[in-house]
Design brief:
single chain; 70 residues; 3 helices; 0% strand; elongated; Homeodomain-like_sf
């Protein structure tokens, strides 16, 4: 069982507070809060790992607009 599933089970079924679940499972309170909020909106899909890759790269150079140096 994943740590996320344990925390969600502890909060929703066992009745632990989010802060108490964070202490018990050695997780940050902010992550537990975010996890519970995601679980309430997405269900079990919230338990899947998420990519940490940025969606955009604001400083990227447009390959079409950049000059070709030979």
């Amino acid at each position: 069982m994943s740590k996320a599933r344990l925390i969600i089970t502890a909060v929703t079924i066992q009745g632990l507070s989010q802060a108490e679940a964070a202490r018990r499972y050695n997780a940050s309170p902010g992550w537990v809060s975010k996890l519970i909020a995601r679980w309430r909106t997405e269900g079990d899909k919230a338990l899947e790992p998420r990519s940490r890759k940025p969606r955009t790269t604001p400083n990227a150079i447009d390959p079409v607009a950049s000059p070709v140096v030979v």
